[in-house]
Amino acid sequence: MDSPEGSLKEGVPGQFFPAQGGLAHSSFAAPAPLQPLPEMEYNGNPESVGYKIKYSRSDGHGKTLSHVVQDRVEREYTIEDLEEWTEYRVQVQAFNAIGSGPWSQTVVGRTRESVPSSGPTNVSALATTSSSMLVRWSDVPEADRNGLVLGYKVMYKEKDSDAQPRFWLVEGNSSRSAQLTGLGKYVLYEVQVLAFTRIGDGRPSHPPILERTLDDVPGPPMGILFPEVRTTSVRLIWQPPAAPNGIILAYQITHRLNTTTANTATVEVLAPSARQYTAMGLKPESVYLFRITAQTRKGWGEAAEALVVTTEKRDRPQPPSRPVAQQEDVRARSVLLSWEPGSDGLSPVRYYTIQTRELPSGRWALHSASVSHNASSFIVDRLKPFTSYKFRVKATNDIGDSEFSEESEPVSARPQQSLPAHWLLSGPVSARPQQSLPAHWLLPGPVSARPQQSLPAHWLLPGPVSARPQQSLPAH
């Protein structure tokens, strides 16, 4: 039957056209702009009109998914849970109670970059010397790159160390290897590699690769002491090198009279487990020089030396002189301290100990307990700027510790410059003779004035500034 004149025949909606501008997008979501269907295209009850959105990866991987938007005047819908840095194809169709209209033209959009979600593959490491290794890797899987890879970082640290890993930067995406240098000798390292995009660092490769640098000759043995000294014999003890640089195979001990005419020496080679040695048949009341060195398969290492006097009259050393610091040797965070050694008590000094005390009411605190036995000066660092300190020193030999020296005079750690170090100029600066520098400045934090000390500050000059020599800095 024909419909009455003037009535409308219901049907599916007309074709939907996406809004101009395509897709705006983020790493994981893409808002699809919608242009509401004109009412003349509803072809039915307006309350039944809605939209259906379907989308899929442009490369054909994965499934085609869809969402339904029930609100006929909706202008945007955010498609979520997408892959990073992936191109998608999106279409929209309108529907009503009768059915669905035709699909719109396809709109193509790409989600934004993110960080790589996995590390490079096939990571390997090969020790090339005792302090270097070559690290190689392959690409991050394409699906996990999530953007344009701008370079790589090699992460490495000593195995079982609590220290933070160090990073070796490889810029660009053309290289797949790095030569790490400056490594510890005969040290086992954990090595990982990560890729980065402009957004940031991706996940490192896993699990870490283990590689040990090659061995080398060892460092000197440590902690040499003579706990027993007689007129014709001495007993020497020591500890292994702090840097063994390999497996210790033996120790060698050499001793001779410490004179310019001595032309013979006694040499003994001991097992790697040895930690003491007794020298017999020595001359009474004489000074002997002992040298001890360790051996790896790479050879004999650096020797440690110590003097000993064959006497039974040994005593603790006398304290060093009062330490002094010259004004030109004072910095904001360090001081060069000097002293004169006291008598060694016929038992050579093995090391010095330095203590510091913060004025006015701080307690004595240990700064260093391993200052070289032949030192007469030492840089005391880790001080606080604009703070006064006192210092004292003691010596240690095989018998024991000396008393501490007299306390030093108060020393104030402070910068040597008299003018502020950092200037922020807001206008051009020109030099004109015989003119002053009127200026406003901004101090970065609370400042307490101290006599004869400058005020470190950041200066903000409001306009053109001209310099005048030999005049003060009037300021507001």
Mind sketching the topology for me?
Layout: E1 30-33, E2 50-57, E3 65-69, E4 76-79, E5 87-95, E6 107-110, E7 124-129, E8 132-136, H1 142-145, E9 151-158, E10 166-171, E11 177-180, E12 188-196, E13 209-212, E14 222-229, E15 234-239, E16 250-257, E17 266-270, E18 276-279, E19 287-296, E20 299-300, E21 304-309, E22 335-338, E23 351-358, E24 365-372, E25 377-380, E26 387-396, E27 411-413, E28 422-425, E29 429-431, E30 458-461, E31 465-467
Parallel strand pairs: 28-30, 29-31
Antiparallel strand pairs: 1-4, 2-3, 2-5, 5-6, 7-8, 8-11, 9-10, 9-12, 12-13, 14-15, 15-18, 16-17, 16-19, 19-20, 19-21, 22-25, 23-24, 23-26, 26-27
